[in-house]
Each structure stands twice: as structure tokens, then as C-alpha cells.
Amino acid sequence: MAAIIRMENIIKTFPGVLANDKVSLEVEKGEIHCLLGENGAGKSTLMNILYGLTSCDSGEIYIKDQLVEFSGPRDAIASGIGMVHQHFMLIPVFTVMENLILGNEPVKGLKIDKIKSEKILADISGKYGMEMNLHAYVKDISVGMQQRVEILKLLYRGADIMIFDEPTAILTPQEILELYKVMESLRQRGKTIIFITHKLKEVMEISDRVTVLRDGRVINKIKTESTNTRELAKMMVGREVLFSTRRPEKRAGAEVLRVEDLYAKDKRGQKGLKGLCLNVKAGEIVGIAGVDGNGQSELVEVLTGLRRTDSGSIKIEDREMAHRNAGRFLAAGTAHIPDDRLLRGLILDFPLYENMLLGFQDQKPFTKGIFIDFNKVRQWSKGLVEAFDVRVPNVNVQAGSLSGGNQQKAVLAREFARDPKLLIASQPTRGLDVGAIEFVHERIMQARQNGKAVLLVSLDLSEIMNLSDRILVIYEGKIIAEFMADEAADTEIGFMMAGGGKK
Amino acid sequence: MKKNPLFDIFIGNDSVFSFVKAILAVFFALIIVYFILLLTGYSPFPVYGALLKGAFGSRRCFGECLVSTTPLLFSGLGFAIAYRCGLFNIGLEGQITVGGIAAAFIGYIFPEMNPVIHVSACIAAGFLAGALWGFIPGYLKARFGIHEVISVIMLNHIAFKIAAYLVSMQGPMKDRLDDMPASPFIRDSAKIVRLVNGSRVHWGIILAVITAFIIWVLLFRTRLGFRIRAVGKNKYAAETAGINVKRHIILTLSISGALGGLAGAVEILGVHYRLFAAFSPGYGFDAIAVALLGMVHPIGIIASAFLFGILRSGSVFMQAMYGVNKDMVSVITAIIVLFMGMSAPIGIMIKDRFKRKSHGTSV
Ligand SMILES: Nc1ncnc2c1ncn2[C@@H]1O[C@H](COP(=O)(O)OP(=O)(O)OP(=O)(O)O)[C@@H](O)[C@H]1O
Ligand SMILES: [Mg+2]
């Protein structure tokens, strides 16, 4: 069968980094082709080249056997290529329809032909099973829906080759299933999809073929049906990967965090937390399981001083912390791995070493009176970057130039470096490759062994089951069930997550 | 809120490229004005020559150039520090005005005294008045979420009106012995001394350059500067790192206003020696262009303030020699700002071409 895309011997260097080293990629028409590889392996770079966002140093791209040269996404779109980025490019205050037609509006005279637009869009979304309210504002719809808007936009522009860069990283498990359906119907209608993910299960479930990258080079090209997750993991990281973390015996110590009857509002000013109680002891990992949107992000924000509590108490080692700001929480010995690294975790325009200083900016070894000793900060950052295997040429590069997974590793390195009493980790392994996930899980376990209290919030139930000593199920802003690690079955937890405990 | 995924091809922060951009902006502005001059019937080169001659032609001319550079440098720094904190302080003209009022008042109300003490007191008064004029919008923003651009525009007008009232016929600061709508002259001990004979240039320029270095150190070497920049680049990440965003907004706008206040004080104490209503010919507005052209970096701002000093002082000469309205330099200023504002897309274009050239025609 003829390849619809052929990229040959693509070489791309960034200062100090060889991101793509003679990469060749072939994608056949009508297949779902998975691009797999470690953090920083060069997947996003390769796709940015295909989409015309970045130019490569050398190499050739053939679309339908035609040699092409893109000088920007506009050219790529004209050749039928579309890309959904991990971070959406929608305008929040526009409606879904306005976002979709932006730049390509059907017009009648000088005015936008609303009726025609609506008809065209309704046709497309119906055809691919992506019904949605065209008149809702983008800011009001869920992340999963926003992603749909992005996909619809590609279809509206006539793309038949679609690139999805880690689309599932930000989705809830339910939304992922929905996305599968959409991808399936796209494939049935002859669209070609390139799909980037770190979740091997997803690779096995949805893709036809896989290309594995490591250190900017193609390691293997393989049919999905002839491989398995273990083999893929080994190809990716070059060694065996353990899929579960060993949990040594450990007796929990004194209570570190105690939350009682906590009330707080959510983003929209409605009730987010409604009388939530929990506690975490030293040397214990407590996992919060739940369907997204049941108060997890509010809980994390309240427990790190980023959201006001309406009432209730938060005690860290018997110190009342409700109504304190984030600085006080840090000073009290909390570390926070935020779920949105780009928003809360990093300052993309800052060099990496300044990012490592965040939260330490007024602390001893780095300050000299009113001054900051940036040499010391650089030195120290180098150590952290090495310890966490953040792949960067040096610590002076801007955080924004790191690959997604390496950004996450940088945040993790900084937060573990706080040597906290209480670690609040929200989606700590989002966007990480399997090797890095293993590493982070080990670090969390190590923190527990060292007597830290860990509160783990994750939408990935297997992560929660794998690490936690105790599992709390959050539902509509309350903890409605508690399981000890050894007695927990995922079916039972799943039942509670759906609100099953409520009569 | 979310960062643009185009980020990695944004080169706005790359200092070499921003330097090239700044040079290009000036260059383009001069070219466009070249054609405007041509179309309006002037011969551009002699006009530009006159502009330069007005700034460098004699010791006196060069002095005038530095005289304009001084308040531009102070207020450019003021705009820059706010900008680094993500704030758009277009209220520097008002802050200059109140700074001038305070300095003039202290300058004449006290009798002759030790000049070091008197000048310092006047400068401190200007600094504090400007700081107050920055604190107010900072507080309004932090407390009530009122956008600083709105409140500083209003505060500008309040400052202008206050100044006009103070020196009006019934005004409390009006010099009763003079028909001019102006305050009494400040004491000799309150005057900032001239740097050289035969020119109005005074020690203020030295003070301004020192201030630039202080702001540089403040922004890039101190804890406060780090926090200010963090708030400016990503206030959510700053908040997460335990930085009190509201407090830093108030503080930074106060510092920004104080720098405007310094510009006003030094202008009164070193040039005019008395207060009159519109003693600043729009330095506070030029400050925006100065800061942007200077890549919002104190050292760059020294250079761009000097460039704008040349334009301002040269324009008078240009008008006298060739009858070109001196507002033609405002056109240059405007085009520079425009180009700096468009710098991101232009930067991408340049980079793209450059890349393509250096790698032949491969994709
Ligand atoms: N604009 C840039 N400037 C400098 N280096 C860059 C830039 N973009 C990417 N890199 C580097 O190129 C390498 C490949 O990055 P890329 O984003 O393609 O990785 P990835 O495979 O998508 O990884 P992840 O799974 O973590 O998203 C990384 O080492 C990264 O630091
Ligand atoms: Mg990536």
C-alpha cells in the first residue's frame, strides 16, 4: 500500500540538542499510526516539522508521493494536514462556531453567513459522531469538548491527515473512550491519524502500527498486533520496565495533615468542596480517587493556599492553616506538584535555573541579604536536572523549549528538593514516559519511606492503586469511601467513584 | 492564560534578535519618514542632517540633548519596571507632574540651606509624590481589580489639573510677584548644579544613569526583582511559588511612579527652577517608546533614552532650519513603537528567511 506520508532522513538540531537524527517515518492512508518514545525523544519536533511549524535542517517530506516544502502551517493545511496541539489554540470568549469558522468564514456579501456555517458544521459533526452545541462559549465547555472543537476545526478545513500530540494526557478516562470513538469513525472515513501518547495501553488499543523513537532516532517500526506493552516499553527506554512499584512494609507515623469539614467554592463560584474531611500521616501515601470534576482541583488548591476556604479547618502538624496564602503553606513544609505545569508550575519565558528557584527565592542558601546568588542557583539546578534526568543541554535554556515530559520532570525535581513534610502531588506523572513514571513512583515511595506524608491526586486509578496505602474516594466535594490498600478492588472503587455509595 | 504553543518559535526573548529588531525599528522608521518628507516637499537628507546638528552641532546643542535624555531615562525606567511586572503604566506623565509639584514646593518653601540637604529633600519629595501616584492605581488594581490603564489615565488628568490650579491666578503656589502662571523660583540651594559651563545639562543625567544601573541590579540580581519578573511573566506560577501577587503589583507600580516622580523633580530642580503647568512636554508618554525600544532592559533604555533625546533636541533645530514641524519626530516615535509591537511576527519572518538561507533549500 502506498504511504500517504513519507518523511525521509529528517535532521533537526536545536542549540546543543540533536532532536531528530535522520528520522524516517512512513504512514499509510487510513491508518492510525502511533508515535512512541521517551520524553524528549523528538516526537513533537518531528510533528511540528510535518505541520510546517518548524523547519528542519535537512531531509525530505513526501505527501501522496509529492515532494513538499512547507514554510508554515498554512501550506501544511493546504496539503490536507492538520494538528491538534496539546495546548489548545481556541479563543475562550468566542462560541464554538465562531472558533470553528475563524479564518475561513463562509460569507454573504460582507457578512458572515451564519446559516450556511451552521449547516456545514452540523453536517461535519454529525458525520463523525461529534455532536455538540455550536453556540456554547468555549470557556464554558469541558476540556474534552474543547478538544473536539479542535478536531472539528481540522475537518472543517478539509484535513485528511491529522496529527494528535498527546491528546489523552489531559482527558479523563471517560473522555478518552469518547476520543477513541471519534478516532475510529475518522479512520473509517479514510482519514489518516498520527497519534502521540505515552500510554502503552492506548497504543495497543487503538493503533495499527507504531514507530518508536529514542534519542531522536527511529528504533523500530512495527505492526501493533505483533507486539505487546512490555516489548514496546523496552524498545522505548532500552531496558525492562516494572509496571508496579514495590511497597515495603511501613508503619504510618504521627498525623501531618488533618482536614475537617472543609467548604470551598469552585471556579464558577458554586460549591466545590462540601464538608470534606481527611487526614494524612507521616510515612503514608493517601490516594484520592474520583471522576474528574468532583472537587479534586479545589481540594489541591485549598490545601496549598491557592484557593480560599469558606469554612472548616486545615491543620498541618497542629498549626491551623485555613485562610493562609501559598507562601505560608510552603513555609509550613508543603510541596506542591500542580496538575497544570504550564500554568502553575513553570514560567516558560524564564531560564530553567530561575524556574528551579521558584518557591526558594527567599530561602537561605540562595539569598545573600536582598540579593540572589544566581551562581549558586545554577549549580544547584544542574544537580537537580541530573538527578531527575531532565534532558537539557544546560540550565540556561528557557523552560518553554523543554519537551512536555521534561518540563514535568523539572517541576518534580524542584518539589522533591523542598524536602517537604507534606507532599501534595496532583497528576504527578502526566505526560511522562513509562521509564520516567517508574522513576517518579519510586521517588514518591522513597518519600514515604523517609516519613513524608503524601497526598496523591490522580485520575489514573491504576496509579492510585499502585502507590497508595489508603484510598479515599471523592464524590461531589466529599470523601464518600475509604479503602485500605490491600482490601481495595478496582471494581468496588469504580462503583464508589460513580457515586454508588449514595442512596 | 495558557501559553501559546507557537512559543518555541517566538524569539522575543532572544537578546541578540531583540537588539537587531530595535535597530531595524529605528531604521524602518527613518525610511518611512524619509518618504513622508519627500512627499511633503522637503529634502530628507538635509532635514535629517539638521536633526543631528541640533543634537550634536555644538556643546550647547549636545547639552540640550542630554537635558531631554534625563527625564526620558527616568521615566523610561519607570515604564520598564512596571512592564516587567506585567503592568502597563501609561501614567508616567501624571507621576512626573506630581513629582515636579512636590519638588518645587520643597524647593521654594524653605529658606536657603545646605544644598546637599535641600536638593535631597526636594528629590525625596518628588520621589514620594510619584510613588503615591503609582500606589493609588496599584491599590485599586490589587483591591478592586480596576485595570491600571484606566486609573492612571484619570490620575494623569487629575495631576494636570492640580498643577494648573496650583499656579493659576488664585492658586496657592502662584508667585504673587510675577504675572506668569508659575510658582516662585526655587532657592539656589535647591538647584541641581550644571555639569559644564555654557550648557543647561545638569547632574541629573548622572543620577539617571546611576538609577538605571540600580534598576538593572534590582531587576536581575535581587529577590524583589525576581519576584517582580515572576509576577509579570506568569502570576499563577508566582502565586504558587508563594509570591504575594497583589502586594508586588502595588509595590511595583509605586516604584514605577516614583521613577516618574524623580523625572519630574529633576526636571524642575535642574532645568526650570520653578513649577508651571505643563512643564513636561510629554516625556511620560515618550517613556513608553523609550522603554520598548530599549528592550525593557535598563541598559538598553540608556541607549534609547539618548536616541529620543537626540530626536527631541534635534527637532527644534530641524524646525528652525527647514520649517519641518517638530512633531515629525513624533511620527518617528510612533512608527518605532509600531514596529516594536509587531516585532514578534517580524522576528519570525526574519528568522525563517535566515534559516532557509543557511540551510539551502531543504525543507
Ligand atoms: N525550541 C526549542 N529550543 C531548544 N530545544 C528544543 C526546542 N524544542 C524542542 N527542543 C529539544 O528537542 C528535544 C526533543 O523535544 P520534543 O519536544 O520533540 O520531545 P518529545 O518527544 O515530544 O517529548 P515529550 O514526550 O516529553 O513531549 C528535547 O530535548 C527538547 O529539549
Ligand atoms: Mg512532546
Count of runs of 4 or more consecutive helical residues of chain B:
14
Find the CATH topology of the largest domain in chain A. Rossmann fold
What percent of residues of chain B adopt helix (DSSP H or I)?
over 70%
Total beta-strand segments of chain B: 0
The share of residues in extended strands of chain B comes to under 5%
Quaternary structure annotation: heterodimer
The main β sheet of chain B shows up as: none
Class by SSE composition of chain A: alpha/beta
Low-confidence stretches of chain B: 1-13, 355-363
Biggest sheet character of chain A: 6 strands, mixed
CATH superfamily of the largest domain in chain A: P-loop containing nucleotide triphosphate hydrolases
Mean pLDDT of chain A: 88
Cα gyration radius of chain A (Å): 24 Å
Labels describing this entry:
heterodimer, A: 503 residues, alpha/beta, Rossmann fold, 3 domains, six-stranded mixed beta sheet, 17 helices, 24 strands, 33% helix, B: 363 residues, mainly alpha, ABC transporter involved in vitamin B12 uptake, BtuC, 2 domains, 14 helices, 72% helix, disordered N terminus, disordered C terminus, binds adenosine-5'-triphosphate, binds magnesium ion
